[in-house]
Amino acid sequence: MTSITCLPGPLHPLLLGTQSALAVLLDVRLPTMSGLSLYLAMTHRWPRLRGRVALMTGDADAPDVRTWAERNPCTVIRKPFSFREITGWLDAVARPLDDAATAG
After folding, report:
1. Which of 25, 41, 66, 91 has the greatest number of CB atoms lying within 10 Å of its CB?
2. How far, CA to CA in Å, does 96 sit from each of 7, 20, 100?
3. What is the pLDDT of residues 63-96, one digit of tens each?
4. What one-character DSSP code corresponds to residue 14?
5. Mapped to the 3 state alphabet, what secondary structure does 44-75 carry?
């Protein structure tokens, strides 16, 4: 069974250490810190999240975001986005896990 958890505050991503997150969707422009910095902190702390974090932004062409995305392997989802884009990304993230489960 899959569930979606919305973490409303800036410190709530710290809860990921106590949960088994399949994927994380972050906004680039968070109220108290950069989503780009939070991505780096999260993937450093929890390497299993590498390849499972996407950033959403209306500023995908901003110089800081473009330069960051060239250096870091992360899906960038442009706003406005559709539910289909999010579910497509989640399917792509889950597929390798499903393949490993059926092979093992």
Report:
1. 25
2. 25, 16, 6
3. 999 999 999 989 999 999 999 999 999 999 988 7
4. G
5. HHCHHHCCCEEEEECCCCCHHHHHHHHHCCCE
